[in-house]
């Protein structure tokens, strides 16, 4: 998603 | 990506491979809690709802697919595969795991980063993962002796989230706006639940004796 807190962790 | 998170993901993958090896090699799931496996399948399905909408990296997508596919395959094995199904400790695996699902979802309705469908299911998956090991730990205490592969499976599964805690500390120190309180607090609770297992696992490793959890 666009805002800062992209869930980049598994 | 930092070394702690990569080590955590690899340890998590290793735990799954060890469990698959145990089930495949021994054609048995004795000592394995089907309920914990079902909870983990729910955790991955709820957490990776954004699998097709948010592309982070090939690695991220690949690992999400591996986690979802392997957890569903293990549940299928224990529920359906005739050889494996027979070895399931039905009367030892009695934890009321649907209560864990209900409590985690309820908590996610109140405690989340944003009140959106994806964020609530993500928080739900984080809380559920923190307690998903409980049926397995209860089963190990009841079943007395623990076979090596099952013990290693639980050890690596507990260790991976411990490595994630180091990852969160590292990211908090190096990335200006990094805060993941929900995942962090849950991760600490999750790892703490393994404390006594880690202790007995260390004792059995030190004395080169069979892993035994006190009843």
TrEMBL record, chain B:
Keywords: Endoplasmic reticulum, ER-Golgi transport, Membrane, Protein transport, Receptor, Signal, Transmembrane, Transmembrane helix, Transport. GO terms for cellular component: cis-Golgi network; endoplasmic reticulum; endoplasmic reticulum membrane. One of its GO terms (molecular function) is ER retention sequence binding. It is found in: Endoplasmic reticulum membrane. It is a multi-pass membrane protein. The chain crosses the membrane at residues 58-78, 98-115, 121-141, 153-173, 179-202. Residues 1-25 form the signal peptide. PROSITE patterns: ER_LUMEN_RECEPTOR_1, ER_LUMEN_RECEPTOR_2. GO terms for biological process: protein retention in ER lumen; protein transport; vesicle-mediated transport. InterPro entries: ER_ret_rcpt (IPR000133). Its main location: endoplasmic reticulum. Belongs to the ERD2 family. This is ER lumen protein-retaining receptor. The gene is 11415903.
């Amino acid at each position: 998603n666009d805002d800062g807190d992209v869930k980049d962790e598994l | 990506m930092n070394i702690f998170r990569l080590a955590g993901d690899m340890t998590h993958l290793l735990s799954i491979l060890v469990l698959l090896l145990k089930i495949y090699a021994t054609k048995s799931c004795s000592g394995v809690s089907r309920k914990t496996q079902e909870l983990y399948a729910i955790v991955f399905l709820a957490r990776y709802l954004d699998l097709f909408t948010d592309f982070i990296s090939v690695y991220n997508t690949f690992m999400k697919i591996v986690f979802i596919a392997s957890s569903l395959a293990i549940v299928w094995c224990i529920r359906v595969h005739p050889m494996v199904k027979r070895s399931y400790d039905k009367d030892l695996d009695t934890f009321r795991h649907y209560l864990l699902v209900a409590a985690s979802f309820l908590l996610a309705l109140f405690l989340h980063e944003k009140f959106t469908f994806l964020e609530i299911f993500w928080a739900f998956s984080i809380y559920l993962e923190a307690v998903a090991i409980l049926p397995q730990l209860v089963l190990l205490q009841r079943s007395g002796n623990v076979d090596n592969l099952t013990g290693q499976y639980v050890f690596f599964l507990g260790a991976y989230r411990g490595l994630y805690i180091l990852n969160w500390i590292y990211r908090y120190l190096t990335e200006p706006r990094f805060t993941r309180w929900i995942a962090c607090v849950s991760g600490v609770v999750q790892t703490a639940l393994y404390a006594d297992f880690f202790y007995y696992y260390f004792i059995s490793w030190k004395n080169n004796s069979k892993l035994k959890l006190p009843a």
